[in-house]
Structures are given as structure tokens and as C-alpha cells.
Task: inverse folding
């Protein structure tokens, strides 16, 4: 796939030493086979394992890789904010930012499909969704499935975006031009530190009526090396706080 735009893949990481190598290998394959205009940014959020060490060493083998290190753990929201700031300041209007989790639950092989849909349908946002035909969750506990579906209903009620059902998945493709427009309107797109940051972005987007779509994804929680870092009750409280922040 050749194009006159660049693709930046932004990945927040915290204590993901077991996921670094397989994830970089998959990203490299996507770049070599489909998207030669792809670069990768990892933001290490104060990992206490070998994540940062492995990422820095990997730059010798993957020249398209950039690493930003937070000196201490600030939370997922801070890492995502760093990615957004880097993309908005360093990319052009026509470029694309793709974000995905650093724990190997998101398949980078889906990136070309997200980008193709974004470009072909002239969208501002495409979300890799488990809630459309073909989407699925593998290895996810039942209570987490209830939680994710409850979150979907909550946000579709209070912050509806046409074409969007999955508000919490961090695997997305954004058009840089729309990210700039949204930040100019809101000042900051992410003000929270926890996992509710992904929903905060969409809650704020909803006021600007983005052209959005979804692409089915199989979330592979069975490939996740460690336990989930998300705290359910804290995230729920964060969701309700968005009613005040983004309305």
C-alpha cells in the first residue's frame, strides 16, 4: 500500500517485557508487507521490569521505532496524552495516527484494514470493534464482558457518535487533521490518568460530530502475559465523571 501520507503507530506500555518482542515482530511484518510509510512510537510509562531496556535495544534492529520514556508511572491517560501530543505536533494534516495496546491483545495485522477504511470512506476515526459482525473476545472473563457492554450502552446514551459502539477499545485510527481540530476545541483531549482515557477522547469527539466507523477485531486476551491492570470500580467512577467534563 503506497500513499502520500504517513502512519504513526502509538503504543503505551507499562511492564510489558513479554509482549515487546512479538509485538515488534508483527509490526515489522506489517511495515514490510503492507505499509512502508509506517513508524512506531512506544511510550514507556515508568515500567519496573525490562520493557524500556528491551525497547531501547530494539531500536538497533527496527530503525522505524522511537521510544519516549516517562521517568515514573503516570497512568495510561498520561501515556496516551504523550502519544497524541507527539502525533499532533510531528505529523501533517493528512497523516494518520493508529493506537493500540502494548500487551499483545491487539493484532497489528488489522492496521492496514483500519487505515484503508479511514482513507477510502473519508472518515475521521475508525475503531477496531468487538461489537460489530466478525468481532469477538477470546479469553475474557464474563464480568469483564458485562462491563464492556455496559460501558458501550452508557456512552451511546450520553455521548453518541454515529457508527460507533465500542468506546473503550484503544485500537483506533485517527486522522491527524481531526485530532488537531478536537484539541483546539477542548484544549486537552485527555485529562484523566486511568483506563477511562479512551472513552474521554470519544466523549469529547462526540460534540464535534466526527465521521466515524468500526472494523471487526478479535481481541486476544488469551495472549496477554499478565493480569489486567484495569481497576473496574475506578474506571466506572471515571466514566461518570466524564458526564461533567465533556458535556
Result:
Amino acid at each position: 500500500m503506497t500513499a502520500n501520507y504517513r502512519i504513526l503507530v502509538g503504543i503505551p506500555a507499562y511492564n510489558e517485557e513479554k509482549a515487546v518482542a512479538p509485538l515488534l515482530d508483527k509490526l515489522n511484518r506489517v511495515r514490510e508487507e503492507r505499509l512502508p510509510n509506517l513508524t512506531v512510537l512506544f511510550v514507556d510509562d515508568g515500567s519496573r521490569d525490562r520493557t524500556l531496556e528491551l525497547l531501547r535495544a530494539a531500536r538497533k534492529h527496527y530503525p522505524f521505532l522511537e521510544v519516549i520514556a516517562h521517568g515514573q508511572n503516570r497512568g495510561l491517560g498520561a501515556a496516551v496524552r504523550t502519544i497524541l501530543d507527539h502525533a499532533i505536533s510531528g505529523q501533517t494534516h493528512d497523516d494518520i495516527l493508529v493506537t493500540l495496546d502494548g500487551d499483545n491483545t491487539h493484532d497489528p495485522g488489522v492496521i492496514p484494514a483500519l487505515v484503508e477504511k479511514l482513507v477510502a470512506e473519508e472518515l475521521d476515526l475508525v475503531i477496531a470493534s468487538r461489537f460489530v459482525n466478525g468481532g469477538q473476545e477470546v479469553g475474557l472473563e464474563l464480568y469483564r464482558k458485562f462491563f464492556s457492554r455496559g460501558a458501550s450502552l452508557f456512552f451511546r446514551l450520553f455521548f453518541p457518535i454515529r457508527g460507533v459502539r465500542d468506546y473503550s477499545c484503544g485500537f483506533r485510527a485517527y486522522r491527524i487533521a481531526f485530532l488537531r481540530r478536537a484539541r483546539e476545541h477542548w484544549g486537552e483531549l485527555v485529562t484523566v490518568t486511568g483506563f477511562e482515557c479512551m472513552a474521554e477522547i470519544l466523549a469529547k469527539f462526540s460534540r464535534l460530530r466526527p465521521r466515524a466507523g468500526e472494523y471487526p477485531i478479535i481481541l486476544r486476551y488469551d495472549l496477554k502475559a499478565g493480569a489486567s491492570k484495569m481497576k473496574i470500580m475506578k474506571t466506572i467512577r471515571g466514566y461518570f465523571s466524564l458526564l461533567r467534563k465533556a458535556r
